[in-house]
Amino acid sequence: TFSPGRMLLLSLLGITLCGVVLLSLPFAQVVPVGFFDVLFTTISTVCVTGLQTVPLASFSFFGHCVILALMQIGGLGLMTFSFFLASLFTNMRMTSKLIAGQLFEFDSWSKIRSFLSLIIFVTISLEAIGACILYQTFKTVMPTGQAWFYAVFHSVSAFCNAGMSLFSDGTMYAFANSPGVLLPLSFLIIAGGIGFIVWYELAHSLRNTWAWLRNQACPLFSFSLHTRIVLSTSLLLVAFGTLCIWGIEHLHAMKDMSGTNGMLNSFFMAVSM
Fold first, then answer.
1. Nearest to 271 by CA among 134, 103, 158
2. Of the given ranges (19-23, 223-227, 264-268), which has the lowest mean pLDDT?
């Protein structure tokens, strides 16, 4: 009786309820935040839209941790997260495996499980690398503990394409001249934006290529139409957007920047858009 659509709806309602309850707790807020603002913030975070009716500074460190968790769950995908946990801690019944097959469009549970494992591995690995790189810049302008939390938060926000920032103006304007912030954020946004099916096929391609280089009988992996379209379109849009933004703004909004820094900011904005 539980179709993938119903499961997705129930998962969304469940995580939204948890988020609203946690963010409504007194120690989750620095200043009083109304119920509808809490509700909007929760849904916006889970659905990674980046829209806010109140600044994130309205919430305490605990509130920021809740927002970080909601953002991560939303970025991974509710069903992906649910099925991965279920596959780790329970012996899933055939009905659940069939639903997972419908959702992820694989014909065997072993493929689904390897796909889910790759999603979690790629997500944690890239976000950890991004956080370590961001920390090197953040530690120069804030205390160590805060620098680590800001690095993790913005790394997750970028990879999940959530568009949320803990800085007071809600932007990365303070780091417009910092390649150590703009470049890792840009590549995290691209990595999260191309989707996990692309990462799944890239992983298989690398594995087959490695086996082929070691003279093992393994055919080179061929990408699906989906992956070819995603990679080529992403490359064209980012390149075209970067050149357009720089061409229009290098004598206006970026007139005080060097040519290299102007191109870097144009690249960041093209990727972000």
1. 158
2. 223-227
